[in-house]
Predict the structure.
Amino acid sequence: MSDPCDRCEEMMQPYLDGALSEAEVAEAEEHLERCKWCAKRYRFEERLRHYVRVELSEPMRPELKAKLAALRTPL
Ligand SMILES: [Zn+2]
């Protein structure tokens, strides 16, 4: 199976970690330009990461964990 969106999703975590090669970044960004769905997912994940970083300065509350788990449910 070679769904470009699956490939794009695989690259999302390393992309946000800055762990992709230049070629892979270019590949991901090319797809993001054409695919609104993936672009939305990347933006969402970025916001989520930022939110988690801020929240992690204090202990993770169970209700927050549940909230994040719900947010992560695929569309
Ligand atoms: Zn896509």
